[in-house]
Amino acid sequence: MARPDDEERRLPQLRQGQSVTVAELSADGHTTNPPARYTEASLIKALEELGIGRPSTYSSIIRTIQDRGYVHKRGSALVPSWTAFAVIGLLEQHFGRLVDYDFTAAMEDDLDEIASGNERRTNWLNAFYFGGDHGVEGSVARAGGLKRLVGVNLEEIDAREINSIKLFDDDQGRPIYVRVGKNGPYLERMVADPDGEAGALIPQRANVKDGVTPDELTVEMAEQLFAIPQEGRTLGVDPETGHEIVAKDGRFGPYVTEVLPAPPEPVEAEKPKRGAKKVEGPKPRTGSLLKSMTLETVTLEDALRLLSLPRVVGVDPASGEEITAQNGRYGPYLKRGTDSRSLATEGQIFTVTLDEALKIYSEPKRRGGQAASAAPLRELGVDSATGKPMVIKDGRFGPYVTDGETNASLRKGDDVLSITDERASELLADRRARGPVKRAKKAPAKAAKKAPAKKAPAKKAAKKAT
């Protein structure tokens, strides 16, 4: 690649076959970085440039894409979900006209006309749905309306194909897909059936961990997920119910669950009528493993304790509400009605007493930096410099590694799930070398000026009596 100052330089006259002597050779590295993720501010700026939306609708747009699970926030960045990729694939493949930037911008202009009273909304909606001569050439109305557009495409849509996102091929050339299912995304590839005939293939599946974004899922990570047994590890039988208890790895991490017997097949006379709502059977009890437990070491006794949660601690004598101890996605906590309080350790779930719970509730609820810290994203080994355990936490500006004293943000290319202890120690050492963070000093408050004292009004001289 030529340097900017070399672009206009003319080469000396050369002839074919002439050898050239190298006077100087330097190696320059050039890397291409992907564009930064959208933040709320940069997304709104992009919408403004495309003429999509209005100032009054931007906040609802941002809220909607988060509420529907199309993006989630990591720090200030908006990270797309697997569902977003599936929805975009559906719209671009079958409803491209609806997601065309020019169409959306023109639609905004039409809505402005309605708002200003120059267009009747019923006429516009009727043409948009059933078709008509409204809009620019190629608009949905002129193409026959939304009803026709959906009717034509609905028969062609393959739900499985739409919900399948090809990632890459493994080292044997087998394509690996992410399928977006009703219980979340999962990996799938076709492998040889060990019990079938030669050449027979069966699907191999693995859950995609919650929080793993599309750009973080590599071939190596996919192979690690495929290596986790999907059928789980049998722990034993619950003596009270007789149900088998297994430990599995799921979308939200490792958990234990009970295996319920298959419901009996209904006889012909009892079969539900066509169109009748299907009656669902009982759901199995489940419980997430504590941070101190692993799939390989969890016991039947541990599993039964987890499945017994939430544990009733007692009743608040003042309010009459029941207090329970539970294990949540963000750690152990107490719950009384709608009021939740964090517990310091997981062991307290099984040991906290009613008096201790009431004492916790008698204290003011802590918020912000005073609140009990959320569970770390990942626990690492010991820092080679300080000898203290390292963890990765999710902060205001994204994930960071800490040993309890020094915090260091993860850099571009550092992955929460694959970062090594050596790399984490390197980040902490680099942060210490840069010294403590200098905080801006607050300017001293200006002394309020004293208001001048009000003068007493002059007294009028009394008139002498004549």
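That was protein one. Protein two is written in the same sequence-then-structure order:
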Amino acid sequence: MWKLLWIGLFGAAIMLGGCAKQASDKAQSYQNDGYLGYSNSNPNLLNRSGTLYEKDIQFMGQLLEPVKGIRKTEVGFNGDDANVTLRINRGLSDADRERIRAEAQSILQSNFPRYDVHVKVRS
């Protein structure tokens, strides 16, 4: 009987002793740098070309300006794929459409080897 009483008192003392510790945990917030706690020690971030999209779109438009028959150039990116849609002048033959597409494909793929360039032609 006394043995159970001592075990019970000892267990209660241990449980109360655990509650007596002062909580020193302080809430920490992340810096407002967009990394949410990740350090910038690894320069090889996952999106290797995301910061270049606007400049690449402008440069693609400049490269395709000399190609005759193109009215408008639309560029979209999906990872390493550059999807280019060329709006061409109406009334061009199928041979001219294919020539414009092949020329644009060649120009863009040679100037942007980091992308897989896909060119579509629309009237």
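Residues 50-122 form a domain with the Alpha-Beta Plaits fold (CATH 3.30.70.1350). Keep this in mind for the problem set.
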